[in-house]
Amino acid sequence: MMSIMRIKSTHPSAKRATQSRKEVTHDRIVEVAARAIRRSGYAGTGVADIMKEAGLTHGGFYAHFASRETLLAEAADRAGSEAVNWSANIAAAAAPGQSLQALMHAYLSQQHLEGVENGCPVAALGSEMHRQAPEVRQAATRHIKEMIDVVARQLPDWGTPNAHEQAMFMVSSLVGTMVVARAVDDPRLSKALREAALKHFSEIGK
Fold first, then answer.
1. For position 61, which CATH number holds?
2. Residue 180 domain boundaries
3. CB contact at 8 A, 74 and 28
4. Burial letters for 38-74: b for 16+ Cβ neighbours within 10 Å, e otherwise?
5. Does residue 62 lie in a domain region?
6. For the chain, what is the domain count?
7. What average pLDDT does this structure show over 78-100?
8. Does residue 11 come out as left (phi exceeding 0), alpha (psi in the -120 to 50 range) or beta?
9. For residue 20, what pLDDT is reported?
10. Per-residue confidence at 177, pLDDT binned at 50, 70, 90?
11. pLDDT at res. 59
12. Is residue 6 part of a domain?
């Protein structure tokens, strides 16, 4: 099984070397917040806790963000970008003809199941998204569309309306399976749910 969900944003360390101290600090706050929203939910993520985890004082928050919603939007953007990049990298690293299966197995893996704060933000936060500020939902929507496109590109008939429709169904199914697998308190049922989904999709993309 491929390594999953120590996904990082694509900004390299070399870029950080050229950033100002304020930019580096801003980036650290967003990185912490991106993990926090997946771990604790939007409602459970407070500014004071984020700043403390980032090693900063609460009073410095407004030097970087106009509001909590601004931070949440950037955090949602970061988390979504990480998930899309991770998915694209899994597909790219797979053997020819196996990209879709590799992506599905990685998404429904035990490691992703347990790695909530570093995993797909839609599976972690989907039920909360409709209650968020417009800028937060816009960031989430953009990356959901990108994830659908990543999956569609792995299908034999990529570029057709059917491939896009099938990709929408598959992304929804993957997310829904992970949500339910995390919701139950029976590890055997959690595993069976994920295995059932993989079995159902086993012929797709072959």
1. 1.10.357.10
2. 13-200
3. no
4. bebebeebebeebbeebebeeeebeebbeebeebbbb
5. yes
6. 1
7. 95
8. beta
9. 87
10. very high
11. 86
12. no
Task: Give me the amino acid identity at 150.
Answer: V
Within a domain: 174: yes
Does 110 reside within a domain? yes
Dist. CA 2–CA 105, nearest whole Å: 9
Q: What percent of the chain has pLDDT over 70?
A: 89
